Amino acid sequence: MAQEFQGKTALVTGASRGIGAATAIALAQAGCAQVLVHYASGTEGAKVTAKAVEAAGAKAVLLHGELANEAGITAFIETLKPYSGHIDFLINNAGSLQKRAKLEDMDLATYNQVMDLNAKSVWFITQAIAPGMIARGSGVIVNVSSIAARNGGGPGATIYSASKAAVAAMTKGLAKELAPAGIRVNAISPGTVDNDFHARFSTREILDGVVRMTPQGRLSTNEDMAEVALFLCSNAARNIIGQTIEINGGAFMV
Ligand code: NAP
């Protein structure tokens, strides 16, 4: 695989921890020359990711960007300008539930943050990066949706689920639009990953319940996600277009 990734640049949003960090490191280990490590509040985590990327032999560039509001998305796109024409792999991974809120508790500010971070940033970052890929006639975009897009999510995660359904729909629409230009767009759809995301938003009781309902009998890991994202970037996935790959140990079957 190393040869096909050689000399390539990847941008991974939300690479300060979790799935994004694992994917940034996997891309470096696969042979990418440069990995752009995006982060927001996780400065220390981003530095740890960058160190691992460099240990794998790639150059790491830390790029800050707050993506849960329009001003932050616009500022990040400015930050990207020196790199945006040269990105071969775009992993639109940054995302969050922000907080669990049922219908009566979901305020407008939180609604907007969830949609801006999980859906709007995916669209406008892709809009900034795609022209460089189109000019070169090649590139791969991997979005990160969620099992919640399929099942409506756990308690208080309805708007999060809607934002991830938007990502799955964008994946198909963009795939159709960009495939003729030589760009493949797909998504991964994690189930329940045993990482900081659920440490913050779920209880051990909820997670144990998920394990009981999962045929494979365990939660997913960051590396389970990263390896499928890497596969989608590789030539082995050359005929896969517009798919959202469910990765959840059998907890949800399409
Ligand atoms: P995580 O550990 O919470 O990491 C989330 C990443 O997103 C962090 O790098 C974080 O950056 C970034 N991020 C969060 N808020 C941000 C903001 N306002 N602006 C810019 N970046 C922000 O979660 P994860 O599990 O790795 O999640 C990665 C993706 O997978 C997300 O899109 C998530 O929705 C999706 N997903 C996760 C699960 C799961 O079970 N964990 C399931 C389905 C889908 P900073 O730390 O630097 O702020």
Automatic annotation (TrEMBL):
InterPro entries the UniProt entry points to: KR_dom, NAD(P)-bd_dom_sf, Sc_DH/Rdtase_CS, SDR_fam
PANTHER family: OXIDOREDUCTASE, SHORT-CHAIN DEHYDROGENASE/REDUCTASE FAMILY (AFU_ORTHOLOGUE AFUA_5G02870), SHORT-CHAIN DEHYDROGENASE_REDUCTASE FAMILY PROTEIN
Xref: CDD domains: SDR_c (cd05233)
Domain Ketoreductase, first and last residues per copy: 8-191
Molecular functions per Gene Ontology: oxidoreductase activity
Keywords from the named record: Oxidoreductase
Pfam families named among the record's database cross-references: adh_short_C2
Family indicated by similarity: Belongs to the short-chain dehydrogenases/reductases (SDR) family.
Name of the protein: SDR family oxidoreductase
